[in-house]
Predict the structure.
Amino acid sequence: MNPTDKAAAAGTGTPPAAEWTPRIVAFFCNWCTYTAADLAGVSRLKYSPNVRVIRLMCSGRVDPQFILDALSKGADGVLIGGCHPGDCHYVEGNYKMLRRFRLLRRMLSDMGIEPERVRLEWISAAEGDKVKLVINEMSAQLSALGPLNLPGKAKGWDAELTAEREAVHA
Amino acid sequence: MPEPRNGVRIGFYVCHCGHNIASMVDCPAVAAYAATLPNVAVSRDYKYLCSDPGQELIKRDIAELGLSHVVVASCSPLLHEHTFRSATEAGGLNPYCFHMVNIREHDSWVHTDRRLATEKAKALARAGIRRVAHHQPLEMKRVPIHPDVLVVGGGIAGIHAALTLASAGKKVYLVEREPSIGGHMAKFDKTFPTLDCAACILTPKMSAVRSHPNITLWSYSEVVKTDGYVGNYTVTVRRKPRYVIEELCVGCQECIDSCVYKKPMFPDEFNEGLGKRKPIHIPFPQATPQVVLIDPEVCLNFKRGVLTDKCKKTCVEACAERKAIDFNQKEELKEIKVGTIIVATGFQPFDVKRVPQYGYGTYPNVYTALEAERLVNASGPTSGEVVLRDGRHPNAIAIIHCVGSRDRKTNRWCSRVCCMYSMKLAHLLKEHSGAEVYNFYIDIRAPGKGYEEFYDKLNEEGVHFIRGRVGEVTDWAMTPEEEGKLVIRVEDTLAGFVRRIPVDMVVLSTGLEPHSDAQSVRRMFNMSCGTEGFFLERHPKLAPVNTYTDGVFIAGCCQGPRDIPDTVAQAGAAAAEAMALIDRGHIDQEPNTARILADCSGCKSCIPLCPYTAIAFDSATQKAVINEALCKGCGTCVGSCPSGSIIQNLFDDEEVFGEIQGVLADEPN
């Protein structure tokens, strides 16, 4: 049986049109927060399914471009998880992230993006329950804020610019 | 949808993990979806991919279908990444042309909606497939390992680990904070359930440590700094001054006899303050090393720790021949190089002052379990005679279980050993005093070899067991029989009413908790702690002595409460893990290091960011250079390079962007 037949046999048709739910991209450091998310799994804690975790070795690796890229590709929020201050596996990568994060948040608010959409959390390897808490809380906050729709906004901005340019040329 | 990349043929495999994944994620649907993605040459679902036939499936596909990359969607990469990398390599590919997608811990186990969980699995699979297309073949980084080992903590765990390693020919540094090794076990009278004398089984091991040519024993010393990484740690140890030269002292103790204090006056730490000692003392008769020490806080030659030279120094006269006493001794810092570290720092007993309702400190005849151990010990302050603080001999004794265990108000965990040691104390107290002994318990937990039988034996001996958590210990008498007694108020949950039981002596069975300075020890060795504060093992079942820092192992109660047999077993396991690293002679490290591209502008902004000073500036080329041997692969420099001129293997920008686009792609699910 080829995979497609199998899927048909399993009876998975087109899913019903779902209501809008926020999409969260999470960058978790390998040593603390990713492990905590594993612990949440092992403990069978239940949390909102709209988060997608990307593993990095250290929160210090989170390039601001990753966050901007995620937002521009349709994420409604970005969560960054690192080790608690003083506990970084690489001594101080989390502090480096904190500095970038502060700067980035200021820039995002200038762009009209609500600060709640980008969140930095210190979650140690033992804090599986905090992973659940933060994701659920963020999911609820983003649901209240509504879609960010940066790709749509960007299209609007492009159209505006084109119109302006044409007006100048005309 | 991205354009297919030339020459990239990905094999995608989704694991059911029995029902673990398949019950919440529609695995065949995920496989069918992945088959439609660019570059995917084959997509399959399988019941257990980590099994031999599962791995064979991957290997066969690599050969038969000419795959270039492999993606497995199953459990956490922290669990099985190594397994599947090895399978990929055995199939003939570079092991790093593999990526693992976590749809168990991060998906099926944490969600309740099958449709949404399946959607998430598809998105994660898509991200993994997009990412892996950028993976390049990499070589492992190989570093040599220093053969010496540091063991921190000289309790039974540290002693056993050190002896095991030393017998295998490894050089071991054993560092103990107290003046003697032996730990808590040295204070115990007997051990359950065999009632072996603790000293008789421990002291031969202690002397073996002292005499072993491969062990350097540093007691009264603490690790103050650790630098480096697996195979190459540099550790600084502070050796506290004893005011006695260890190499010259033979332990004759004539100095103690000649001290100007004719009688011992100061609380003796080893006997939990129940006995007295002099300023110059030896912690206990079998102390190892057999070296005296001077307590500068109370010695007349010092004033609260500061040398005054005001005493007659009769101890120096007594030691005139060997000249071992040195009041000018200063603390020493020693730097050692080791390849692996075993942390066996043990526990601290629960502080009974936190449960004031049990009257410790208010009523003199309330004891902690450790005090009771000393009280029944033949070499204890009363030579084993059960004499209370007020001089009486008890006729009735209460032992309260679970003090600081299984209690939401203090510590939630079960300390595992208290039921057994309470029963042991019940036996010993009854034997030594002939008193009636009452045990107040929540549940009797006797899960070990010969443990349940020991409980039966106690029942036969006529020890009373009353099921119920004690409400309070009070001296307020309601009847003439209760006059002058301590009254235990407890709800007997089997009889179903509240009882008052008058006794003469109360023993509080204190639970085990992490040391109050466990957090600083944890930071020193770059370990993690669980929520309760015990050191965290790498995997609770499969890597119980490993930590998240390679080359650092844990053994004994610093990882969680356990009894002596389990501690010894774990210490042996930690020693074996350390030996496995040492005997291989080298360590293969993840090649996730960073490197600098030719378009580096030489702005130097990355240089101060590196915590390992791995980045230098090459003035000839005007570019930054990364020393690969020093780079640990955190990627902080990569994330901050303004010109994108630094690449991190396995976490390159292209790979991460591929993953971001993958999780967010608006493709039909």
Summary: Chain B touches chain A through 67 residues (CB under 8 Å). The two ends of chain B are 13 Å apart (CA to CA). Residues 348-513 of chain B form a domain with the FAD/NAD(P)-binding domain fold (CATH 3.50.50.60).
